Prior knowledge:
By secondary structure, the chain is an alpha/beta fold. The chain contains nine helices and eleven strands. It has a single domain (2-247), classed as Metal-dependent hydrolases (TIM Barrel, Alpha-Beta Barrel). Helix content is 37%, strand content 15%. It has a six-stranded parallel β-sheet with strand order 3-5-6-7-8-9. Helix 8 crosses helix 9. Bound molecules: fe (ii) ion. Residues 5, 7, 82, 135, 189 line the site of fe (ii) ion.
Amino acid sequence: MLDLHCHILPGIDDGAKNLEVSLELLAEEKKQGIQAITFTPHFHPNRIELDEFLAARQHSYNKLMEAPGVSDLGIKFKIGAEIFFSTKLNELDLDQLCYTDTNYVLIELPTDEKPYGLTHTLIDIINRGYQPILAHVERYPYFTSDPTRLYDLIEKGCIAQINSGAILEGNKIVMKYIKWGMAQLISSDAHNMKKRKPNLKDAYALVKRKFGEDYVDWFEKNARDVFKGRYVDMPDPKRPKKILGMWL
Length: 248
Ligand SMILES: [Fe+2]
């Protein structure tokens, strides 16, 4: 298993507050059977300059890599970022924000209103050669109230990521996304050992029970392809239909 969205780097965002917590999170990832991780600290283009963020991220990454025992875990590491959506992304060089040696960029959207310029900014990013991964797509009311909005973005080339915690909570829309083929990646989005800890193993076990082993194999293959920078071969999702007030 691979975890491609987590906040394990120490002292850089609202995730691991120090090295001690980072090491606890990494030990838990190992216990969960995780073989590769992409660290994705929050980057907010309207709040911090790109160079400043990159320097802070490198410092935090070096600190974790130099900590005793980390290189013995047998986990492969890459770095990326969870980029907060802004139309400013059209002007920003995203190369250094991609998952290491890939063209994948993890993008988080606002949780209140559908942001202005969402579709055209994402299309621009795709046209520039990047592949957007939309973070935790179960969180956005403008997708959950009308999942065809997410469907249309997946059709345009976006990848949809769901959180393992939402699967374990039995989040209804997450289950529907999986059924419709509208989620391609499962990640932990782990922040700490209390409320948001690494839990991919249990989430995959639940997906296996509810949907079958083929789904688990497919999610794992997608994660491997993204980590290695390969194209994710996605079957066409099913376009959700509203029948008697219910999305089916
Ligand atoms: Fe996150």
